[in-house]
Fold:
Amino acid sequence: MSKVSQVERQLYILQLLSVDKWYTVDDILSHLRASSIEVSKKTIERDLDSISMVFFVTEDKINGKVSYKGGKMNINSFSFSFSPTEILSLHFMKEIMKPYKSLSISGFANDLIDQIIRKTPEMNKSYLDSLGDVIKVNNTNIFSDQIVNDTHVSQINQAISQRKAIQITYYSSIKKNVTVRLFKPYIMEVRNGVWYAIGYCEDRKAIRELRLNKIRDISITNIDYKKPASIKDINAFNNINQRRTTKVYPMKLKFKKEAISFIEEFESKNASRIHMENDALIYEKDIVIDTQIERWILSFGPLVEVIEPVILKERIKKHYEDSLKNY
Structure:
C-alpha cells in the first residue's frame, strides 16, 4: 500500500468529487484502495470536513445513503471591491499570463479573472483599464508552448494522484523518432511557457523530463510506484534531474563594457563567479547546455563572447551562421 500525505489524499478525493457524480464514503474508500492508498472511513470523513471548509461540497441522501459531490462557486452571486494594490495585482496576473495563451489552463485562469473584474465597481474597472498604458510586464524571455492536449494533462494529473505509471508514445525531436515508454510521472511543471512531465523513465532507467506537446498517446497502467522521498520541491527535483541525466559544463563568458552594468545589476546573483579582466567582465557559471541558455546568450548579440565550453561556443557560432544564410 502507498503512503501519501494528507494533502495528496485530499486532492485525490477532491478530484473524485469534481466528476459530476455522487460518492458515498464507501465509494471513496474503494477508489482509494484501488489506487493502493490505505485509509479508514473515519479519516475520509475528516478529509471531507476539511475539504468542505475550502471547496463547495454538496451533501445529500441518494438512494438512502449519505453521498457527496463537488460543487461550483457561482461568481455572479458575489460582488467585489478592490484596493489600488489589489487592482494592480489583477493587472499583473493578466499580463504575466499572456505568453501562456496557447495553454488552456491560462485561458481558464484569464476567464476567471475577467469574471471577477466584471463584478467590480465601474471605478475599479476604469482604474484597471488605465494600468495597461502605465505598467507593462516584460515577458520576452518566455516562449509560449505549442498547443498541448488537455486530455493528456488530465491523464498525467490522474496518474500522479493515483501513483500509477503511464505508457506513452513519445516523439524525440533530437533523434527524429517515436518510441513507446513506461513512465512514472512525479510532477508536472510549466517552465518558460512549456509543459513538462518529470519522472522516472523505465526504458532509460533514469529520471527524465518530457515535453507534453511531444507525447502522442497516453494510457494509465495498473503499475504502482513510490515517489522518491528526497524530492521536496521542484527546484530540488530539477537539480537531481540535471545531476543524474545531463552533463554539466563550466561556462565562461566575456561581456563588453556596454553590457557590464546590466549583468552586475540583474545577472550577477546567478553567477558562481564574476570578475573584471581589462575592460571586460568575465561571467562564470556551471550550466547544462540547452536552448534556454543559448537564447539567453544570443539575446546579448555582439556584447558577449563564449570563452568556454567549446561545444557551446560552436553552437552559438552555428546559430549566427544559419541566420546569415537568410540575408
In short: The radius of gyration is 25 Å. The chain is about 40% helix and 25% strand. Confidence is low (pLDDT under 50) at residues 232-236, 240-245. The domain at 6-70 is CATH 1.10.10.10 (Arc Repressor Mutant, subunit A).
